Each structure stands twice: as structure tokens, then as C-alpha cells.
């Protein structure tokens, strides 16, 4: 496995509350431009899941991440949060020294719990902007009929973002504000914008027309900035 350049694991597999499992991977993580992908699941939340069941419940201490940060300065870390809706539960996976470069938040379809308000998503964005705004390059969010979230807040809080991917409900005015900020050069490093609009059947005609107009209005400026631009209706 000398040529290994990417390792994808569930967070719980290397979370042992001591950091020993993560530190044992240093010889691999030190390789140039190595990618580590961690999947964080709702049934494995540190401090919430019963650790005696064998999977989940443990965390990776910040001291271990600090050592990784020092030893592997070019490590590309991706953390994917799957079906974790409460902001407080997401924070249990995160510590200040995590070298976070890319994060994916996927809510999926929840048939048994009441949909949370956008406050959880707003708090999540503010937290990663505060902690990881200098290192984060890719942000991906996939909601499913969740509360409407203001996308312009993302580029205002994380102006160094390179890729923004979003699936969910949106507002037309917010999309226009977002694209105007991009057109003004606020997000100077941005290279990809992919937004898929979820809509109700009753508003399908409205959104089809709005998406067409916004594409026509902003496609030229996106091309001028060499930004890969995709705005369309989400097809489930």
C-alpha cells in the first residue's frame, strides 16, 4: 500500500477517546497531499452513543488532531455528516485543531422526526466559519424539504471558499444576492457553484422561470471569473 493516497473511514473506527488510533496512522497521513475522509453518523455521536455497544460513543481528542496538524501540514481532511440534525451533536465530532478542508452535511429524508428549523444550519455554518474559515475550501449541504437557509450568509462568513454545493429550498431574492456578491468579487477564490433548487409542485412553473432568468443573468460573469456555474431544479 505504498501508493495509497486516500483513506476513507467511519469516524468511530479511529475514535478511541485517547487519540492513539489516529496517531498510529501518522506514517500514512504524512504522505504528500494525502486525503483522509471521515464519515460521521447519527448513531455514532461521541458522548451520546453507548460506547459499550462496540461502535460509536468515543471521540478523538484535540491533542491528537494538534499532532496531526503539525506532522501533516498538507493533509486534506474531508468530514461528512450523515443524518445528524442537531447542531450540538455535530459539534461533538469537531475540535479546534482539526485541519478541516472539506465538509458535507447531508440531512436525507426523516420520516419520524419533526424537521428542525434553520437555526441548526445557521449555527453550523457560523461555527465552521469561525473555527475553520482559513482552511475550508469545499462546503456541501444536502437538505430535504428543510427550512429555508440564506445562502448569502455562507459567502459572507467564508469568503475563502473554493467550492459551494447546495441542494434544498431557497428564496429567489437570496439567490440573486448570493450571485451579486460573487459577481462583486467577494468570494475571490471561488471556482464552483452548484445549486439545485427543491420546489413544491405548486411552484414548479415559478421556479423554472426564475432559474432560467438567473442563469441568463449571471452565466457571463461566472464565465468571466472562470467559475463552474450550475443552477437547476433538483430532480429526486
TrEMBL record:
<keyword id="KW-0812">Transmembrane</keyword>
<protein>
    <submittedName>
        <fullName>Uncharacterized protein</fullName>
    </submittedName>
</protein>
<feature type="transmembrane region" description="Helical">
    <location>
        <begin position="12"/>
        <end position="29"/>
    </location>
</feature>
<dbReference type="InterPro" id="IPR032675">
    <property type="entry name" value="LRR_dom_sf"/>
</dbReference>
<keyword id="KW-0472">Membrane</keyword>
<keyword id="KW-1133">Transmembrane helix</keyword>
